[in-house]
Amino acid sequence: MSLPIARTVADLRARIAAWRRAGETVALVPTMGALHAGHLSLVAIARAEARRTVASLFVNPTQFGPNEDLARYPRREAEDAALLADAGADLLYAPTLDAMYPRGFATAVAVKDLTDVLCGPFRPGHFQGVATVVTKLLLQALPDAAVFGEKDWQQLQVIRRLAADLDIPVRIVGAPTVREADGLAMSSRNQHLSEDERRVASTLNRVLRDVAAGGGAGAARQALLAAGFARVDYVEVRDAETLGEPSAGRPARVFGAAWLGTTRLIDNVPA
Q1: Which domains does the chain have, with CATH numbers?
Q2: Cystine design at 12: which of 6, 46, 138, 182 (Cβ 3.0–4.6 Å)?
Q3: Catalytic one among 36, 39, 126, 192?
């Protein structure tokens, strides 16, 4: 059975309103498509959180920098829709660019502090683009819950902050990172890795776990470069909630971002 697709905000809201009239709860899974097992795990969590599940598919141009991979980001809506149907989603929301950013669109959502560290300095404007599109998606659907992966931990904290600050009545649910057998965090960008790069890629998770076990961030950087990474943006230990400097008695995480060829990989683990 094919998955129903909504292309406009009005269509999305009409379908959700019908569920609401029937007394049903709704969960949202925002994605940019090119789905893999990690995305499908979010759908499974969403289905446990609510009676109905909407998955969105929108490659958001405002979160890509001028030299980033927007043009080559994989787009395969038909295949993604089939995967979502098999996973038990009830609706695919796949708006057009004009539906999301109509003529004259002039508003942006910016979250301070959380975006000044880690990926923030390396991807100027990225988190503003994420915050803006996620705010729109949450307000368009007004779900009971929205599910986001913990692989993008900084993004997850940004979204939790904006939902709280803007009084958006939605429960933000973090979903555990799904990994390949060798520890590599699943990502749509992994398909850009060559065979040699793919063999090296799992080193990122290994060195972050070494830091969590008491190793130094400097040694981790050197280990990544020695393994074949072209550049290391950062390896840092941060407070898990504020992303500030870690302090005794508070949860912390180890974060890393590094490049294999033209592909940037990120990951994080509990400290």
Answers
A1: 5-175 (3.40.50.620), 188-270 (3.30.1300.10)
A2: 6
A3: 39
